[in-house]
Amino acid sequence: MLVAHGSRRKESNDEVVVLTSKLGGLCAEQFSVVHYGFLELADTLIPAGISRCVDDGATAITVLPYFLNSGRHVVEDIPNVINECRALHPDIAITIAPHVGASQGIFDVLIASASTQI
Amino acid sequence: MLVAHGSRRKESNDEVVVLTSKLGGLCAEQFSVVHYGFLELADTLIPAGISRCVDDGATAITVLPYFLNSGRHVVEDIPNVINECRALHPDIAITIAPHVGASQGIFDVLIASASTQI
After folding, report:
1. Distance (Å) from the C-alpha of residue A22 to the closest C-alpha of chain B?
2. Domains in chain A, number
3. What Pfam families does the annotation carry (chains A, B) (predicted)?
């Protein structure tokens, strides 16, 4: 499950919905179900996203924080909400993956993006 | 120049500083100078970051928005600040690269991050 912050700007939330759909197609071999959940400000919130995964048959869920920096949302808020979700779904293994900005691969993305302009 | 939002949380800003330093080492062939600039809330702000690039001899600057979603900051605020910078440095070609979240490579990063947990 991709977890994004959520925005008051609908277009920004729509991007996450589209991204999730595309991601689901690209990683169907590793992940049979891919949904999204927002931390705040937008539907679907994280607990509802987890429930969607469970309803679709997930028995183990990887939560992927769609964040670049390890701010309070990554360090505290998402883990706290996920702990609440674990209490609601004690039979489901829910793990939290490193946030996007922690990935070594982000450097390739940065260089590729910048290089399109030179 | 990597442009990040800036945070009240010092650790988050420090991450951008470290990331920029590492990025500079990784793309030294394509970019002779790599600095950072924050949109708000933290030193160094974008105009000061641009000035640092110019002081270090840059004659063309690629601005890379370190943002995942194309919100108001990416669509309006950064372009507005960059336009002000262009007026201050009329002899420097300043272009804005696509924000990180717009990169096709982001999917590989997402799948790799999620896969570390399964």
Report:
1. 9
2. 1
3. CbiX
β-pair partners for B65: B3
Q: Are A9 and B71 in contact (CB under 8 A)?
A: yes
Q: What is the pLDDT along chain A (118 residues), one digit of tens a residue?
A: 999 999 888 998 999 999 999 999 999 999 999 999 999 999 999 999 999 999 999 999 999 999 999 888 999 999 999 999 999 999 999 999 999 999 999 999 999 999 986 6
Quick one: which H or E segment has residue B4?
A: strand B2-4
Domain CATH for A81: 3.40.50.1400
Measured CA to CA, the distance from residue B4 to residue A60 in angstroms comes to 34
Tell me which chain B residues have a C-beta less than 8 angstroms from the C-beta of A69.
4, 7, 12, 15-16
Q: Does B95 contact A115 at a Cβ distance shorter than 8 Å?
A: no
Interchain proximity B109–A103, CB inside 8 Å = yes
B100/A107 CB distance under 8 A? no
Instruction: Write out the residue range of the structural domain in which residue B48 sits.
Output: 2-115
ipTM of the complex: 0.91
Contact A115, B30 (CB under 8 A): yes
* Dihedral (CA of A95, A100, A102, A103) sign: positive
The partner residue sitting opposite B118, judged by closest CB among A12, A62, A118, is A62
